[in-house]
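Researcher: Here's a chain I'd like modeled. Treat it as a single chain, no partners, no ligands.
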Amino acid sequence: MIYKALTIAGSDSGGGAGIQADLKTFQMLEVYGMSALTAVTAQNTLGVHGIYDMPLEGIAKQIDAVFEDLGVDAAKTGMLSQPQVIELVAERVRAHGLERLVVDPVMIAKGGASLLAESAQDALREKLLPLAAVVTPNIPEAEVITGRKISTLDEMKEAAVCIVKQFGAGAAVVKGGHSEGAPTDVLYDGEQFYLLTAERYTTRHTHGTGCTFSAAITAELAKGRTLLDAVHTAKRFITLAIRDELGIGGGHGPTNHWAYWRDEQVKK
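Model: Modeled as a single isolated chain. Structure tokens:
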């Protein structure tokens, strides 16, 4: 059985985030990866030096081509910078009846560049979140989505409930990487809370962590794993990717997409 996952996101020329990170993650988790580019960025570990949006027709044709021939077991969205792009992606997701959709609400690059226009925030809430099986914001992204200040674990839980109950997502994972202490993520599946905690590693090489984490969830959902199992695997995948840093680039370097696979081989 070949499991297949689609990433609908921007391209990162530096290879640490975007579709490059997604495809690397899919491969390491033994899922066949496919992509639909929404934008091309000129980017490295020092920052984003240019953003070039794809034509809407080109985005639609990429998505349709993949669904109509190869099929999609699960998909994720990443950088959807403009409201018309979000509306188009939502429309194609509905048209193809995709249920396993992971929405990574990419808003700001690690170097600080804005990747989501303010005008697109309402489209994200109204058009895309209701189609998501799970949404994976970090704390700053969850603050934008919910309009709430988040500084405690209870406030993370409240934000997760808001994303599910108010905006219609199937589930939410509010990630704790921006909090103090051990990075604890809050998963709310509409009924229960689950807390996932890992050791914090101090490093500047964290570019693409959000993309990689959401891609790992997508890959595991494509295999038919439960959401809780998928999030557990993703948490371990990104923790190892941060711990075993590559140390490349002069700024916010990429995570290590080999780390999880290599750890699995050692266990064998």
